[in-house]
Amino acid sequence: MLMNRIETVVINNPVRRALQRWYEAPVLERLGGPLPVGARVLEIGCGPGYGARLLLEHFGAAQVDAVDLDPAMAARARRRLAPYRGRVRVGVADATDLRPLIPDDGVYDAVFDFGIIHHIPTWRNALDEVARVLKPGGTFYFEEVTKHALDRASYRLLFDHPAHDRFTDTDFLAELAAHGLAARGHRTIVFGDFVLGAAERTP
Ligand SMILES: C[S@@+](CC[C@H](N)C(=O)[O-])C[C@H]1O[C@@H](n2cnc3c(N)ncnc32)[C@H](O)[C@@H]1O
């Protein structure tokens, strides 16, 4: 499900970028460890492309593929990432079916999810794809918004999200395990509203 106008403003905002740079990226790196040298990385739901920039600059990824369902977001990301041409590719794709862009299995050292899976009605299908495209031993880094947040009146009033079959932190971690993604570490914050963590693709 695409973002509404209010969420688009919230995401395309210096405060969001600061949070991503100074909180989310360091916590994810602490929980999942650094990327291997020469890492090939996928970001699902890249939005305006700031996360992909952090993957190149902060995490030191060698190559980043970034995808978003919304062509307007992919266009923004392409503009932001133009200085990194050669190390980054941006595409339009649905995280629940990446095969049109990424037909091969086991090709990425890491997959990043900066707050996108809670936007997907059939969110388990996105985890199928994360598990499919990760190399054995590769890492899934995630930052997600839980049912606790999405059930709040403020969230329901301001933003558009799928209403049914949302997940708590525990639900999300259990689903990762069911997809062969073994949690390395996680942190639940803001009264259970957000969960950040990293999980390893088991062979
Ligand atoms: C809350 S925004 C997060 C954007 C960016 N990752 C960030 O942290 O700033 C969610 C993004 O997921 C995208 N999205 C929603 N459903 C998607 C899907 N099924 N596949 C890929 N991207 C999706 C939206 O278009 C939006 O750009």
TrEMBL record:
Gene3D superfamilies: Vaccinia Virus protein VP39. Pfam families: Methyltransf_25. Residues 41-138 form the Methyltransferase domain. InterPro entries: Methyltransf_25, SAM-dependent_MTases_sf. GO terms for molecular function: methyltransferase activity. Keywords: Methyltransferase, Transferase. It comes from the Bacteria. GO terms for biological process: methylation. PANTHER family: 2-METHOXY-6-POLYPRENYL-1,4-BENZOQUINOL METHYLASE, MITOCHONDRIAL, METHYLTRANSFERASE. This is Class I SAM-dependent methyltransferase. It comes from Actinomadura fulvescens.
